[in-house]
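seq/struct pair 1
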Amino acid sequence: MLLNLIIIAIGFALLIFGANWLVEGSCNIAARLGVPERVAGLTIVAIGTSLPELVVSVTSAVAGHADMAFGNVMGSCLANLLLILGLSAVIAPVTLSRSTQRFEIPVSVAACALLALLANTDGQVTMIEGVILLAAFAAFVIRTVVVGLKEGAGEKTAQDAELEAEFEAEGRGSNLIRDALFIVAGIAMLKFGADFVVDNSVSIASALGISERIIGITVVALGTCLPELVTSVVAAFRGNSDIAVGNVVGSNISNLLLVMGGPALFSNIAYDPVYNVDLALLAIFSVVLVGFAFIGRRHEMSRANGVVFVVLYAAYIATSVLR
């Protein structure tokens, strides 16, 4: 048992470092190709923080552990919204932009409804339904890129100029090789990390008589959402509340559409109706987040609101384990 826990910890470390290396290499290459930093951040970084969930879910689905795949996604989404965003607000009040209220959160709620509709149709997420989820995610990314390009048109930040100078000074060829190696190493670390986490989590669940769903929404979900936790908490300490909110909401959209759509391309994923409760809670709490913008100071999630979300997360975990 202790060995399993150690291997799971190693697996989480591989997932986190692998995602970071993959994102860093991809962002550097994007910068060399002239892709605006803002657009790269809205796409590559957002997807990168969801890579641990994606790889773990694909590995779980292919191995026939559907409860682990769904539990990972549901647990990660609720941890992102209630625990991570709640802690960020406790550290410093979080600003809720009009874009977040009017677009990202409604898209997140719509993603919950779409996944619930497809999964409940025939008790599983099939390849065709996976394609539908991925198409919806692609539409979201395209819209994000288009808006980002319009907002950033003609703008060149000091950091962009600094990166260009760095590329010229160090040599584009050698940097390109380094970034390509980062990407390859990141992918390898994600693969091995996911195998370590899934295989050993299943072993622990079997030994203790705990369901894969409980392991998925607790241990696996908390481990795979560590990139979002670190990103949002650091952003909160620095006063960058837009990053904290965008990271959480964007990651949830990626989890619901990309992370559940991707595994379905490899194998049909059996769906347990018990997850309807999790999807409903995620949609409800997302709407509550919008409500915070009209309670107290306008367009802000206060420290008290953050405490409420953290308490709700603790209650969710407690009731999930006991039921």
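seq/struct pair 2
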Amino acid sequence: MNINWYPGHMKKTKESIQVKLSMVDVVFELLDARAPRSSENPVIDEIIGDKPKITILNKSDLADDVVSELWMNHYIEKNSYSIKIDSTNKKDLNGLIKLTQSIVKEKSKSLKKRGVINRPTRAMIVGIPNVGKSTLINTLTGRRGARVGNRPGITKTHQWIKTGYNLELLDTPGILWPRFEDKQVGMNLAFIGSIRDEIMDTETLALRLIEKLCEIYPELMEERYNFSIEDKAGLELMEEIAIKRGCIIRGGEIDYTRVSQIVLDEFRRGIIGRITLEKPE
């Protein structure tokens, strides 16, 4: 499968991030907890340099909690600030606020000595498309201050947003990198919906997802779709799902488009179960 995704606005986003970096105290990089390595943009660290960064494993409620803990230990070993959250859960965000305050504590003291009192902490939110940046902002502000959608690429411009936590956020459009050197990275991003389904073969994508999930979470797949995966190829399993879900068109043929949409949707919504596609090395 050939995945090519780098719209022109992403190049402009990268340049704008570099320009506005001096205006913030800390960077929030949101990753998808279901695919932390694949959703980590390799150019972000290069862009932000020495600016403090918190790695946020978002959508942790959809991910395998055991594997998420492995990832948290991985970041601890790297001496990186990190936290896992469900961006719709305000309790989770309290931990993010406390971590942010601890990181900027010394800078806040320095500002107070210079007579700058009660200046809000300023954070820039970065991440690839569809990792939940807008949802995080809306939960922090308690309002629909940022547009949210289940399609990548909703946010088109930078915008400052005030919260009730003495924190100001600079939202940025999702930015991917020009080319995926690792094909599995591109596949994982397609699975979690960070690349628009329209630019690829959805049926092949769903087939590859079925094969992947039957390999790493066979019990969840068997329980969800009430079949046995033993000695069966991915296409055969896909057709079994189609039959069980009534994805049949005139003439008794399989409606591959419809069953593909069902499988992708149920994975992305966590209906199949809590799944993480990759573990730390």
